[in-house]
Design a protein that fits this description.
The chain has one domain: NADP-dependent oxidoreductase domain (TIM Barrel, Alpha-Beta Barrel), CATH 3.20.20. Helix content is 41%, strand content 11%. It is built from 13 helices and ten strands. It binds NADP nicotinamide-adenine-dinucleotide phosphate. The site of NADP nicotinamide-adenine-dinucleotide phosphate has 30 residues, from helix 8 and helix 11.
């Protein structure tokens, strides 16, 4: 693939319009990213390249998504052809539960698969260590009782200090956590030598988590909203959950602003200072989900969306683990 000078110019122009947030690590993270969970392998190359052309500079990966190698191939090609430079991208990946005792090896395994020599952000995927099954295998082994085999010998503090070591080795530029509630976030602030730059949590209009979002922001932890569209049909299929995109208030506000429900919900996330990482496998939705910087939701309408909160989690790993780690 040869990238023309005109196309490089267009990509640069989009880059300048993109909004970024400053992290406590001193690095900057683009305010809209592309999540790659449940992105099927054959389409990844095209989706990543189309996303870069549409202006995305932030990609949210994880060892557990089992597509790091395909993402890595797509990124390598994008660098080789001059579509984008490595330093202009922000790449996140995550430590799986079964690798808490093997942080360095797991990070190196992800780097190898992604074909990168550093990560912009490395996150602890869930606040739970489970039975180790081999680096990068990302299993969720169950015990004889059919319940997730949780390793009670590795504390989250031990895992965090191993994450901190990756910074001094220059394998990662920022480190953070996912799915930590207020209590665990308070705790990590007490034992961290380097505080988490990011807490990536499920949040959308039906699951607003204002206390957690405000607590993180007060302590300089950037909140990234995973599942920012409420999971839409993907989570309806996997977990039987209901998405906020079908809410009549969301639909009517979207119509009022001349936007789609997805754009309205992502803009709402942006206006509450969360970074949003919607996933789509549809090329035509890439541009739609990125076009959230050219309008403002009024204070009155932000209040209408605030009133939709149902404290409703759409992503329920307990379905696969036989235990609800959020209890
Ligand atoms: N840290 C964690 O524990 C964690 C957990 C979950 C997710 N995540 C991250 O967050 C990312 C996003 O979460 P998610 O994928 O679960 O949920 P999501 O982004 O809220 O929703 C994805 C669903 O929305 C659909 N969709 C995308 N754009 C749309 C649009 N414009 N209009 C209507 N529907 C649209 C997608 O379908 P199509 O693909 O068909 O467009 C898919 O069904 C993940 O990819 C992952 O990177 C992290």
């Amino acid at each position: 693939m040869v990238v023309s000078a005109k196309e490089r110019g267009m990509v640069a122009a989009v880059k300048e319009r993109e909004t970024v947030v400053a992290l406590s690590s001193g690095h900057k993270m683009p305010a809209v990213g592309l999540g790659v969970w449940r992105m099927e392998s054959p389409a990844i190359r095209g989706l990543i390249h189309s996303a870069i052309r549409a202006g995305y500079r932030h990609f949210d990966c994880a060892a557990h998504y089992k597509n790091e190698a395909e993402v890595g191939d797509a990124l390598a090609e994008a660098f080789q052809t001059g579509l984008v430079k490595r330093e202009d991208l922000f790449i996140t990946t995550k430590l799986w539960n079964s690798d808490h005792g093997h942080v360095l090896e797991a990070c190196k395994d992800s780097l190898k698969k992604l074909r990168l020599d550093y990560l912009d952000l490395y996150l602890i995927h869930f606040p739970v260590a489970t039975k180790h099954t081999g680096v990068g295998t990302t299993a969720s082994a169950r015990g004889d009782d059919g319940v997730l085999d949780i390793d009670t010998n590795i504390s989250l503090e031990t895992t965090w200090h191993a994450m901190e070591d990756l910074l001094s080795m220059e394998l990662v530029r920022s480190i953070g956590i996912c799915n930590y509630g207020v209590t665990l976030t308070r705790d990590i602030l007490a034992y961290a030598k380097i505080k988490p730059a990011v807490n990536q949590i499920e949040t959308h209009p039906y699951f607003q988590r204002d206390s957690l979002v405000k607590f993180c922001q007060k302590h300089g932890i950037c909140v990234t909203a995973h599942t920012p569209l409420g999971g839409s049909t993907a989570n309806t299929e996997l977990f039987g959950s209901v998405s906020c995109l079908d809410d009549p208030v969301i639909k009517s506000l979207a119509e009022k602003y001349g936007k789609t429900p997805a754009q309205l919900v992502l803009r709402w996330g942006h206006q509450r200072n969360t970074v949003v990482i919607p996933k789509t496998s549809k090329v035509e939705r890439l541009a739609e989900n990125f076009a959230v910087f050219d309008f403002d939701i009024s204070g009155e309408d932000m209040e209408k969306i605030k009133a939709l909160d149902r404290n409703y989690r759409t992503n329920q790993p307990a379905k696969f683990w036989g235990i609800d780690i959020y209890e």
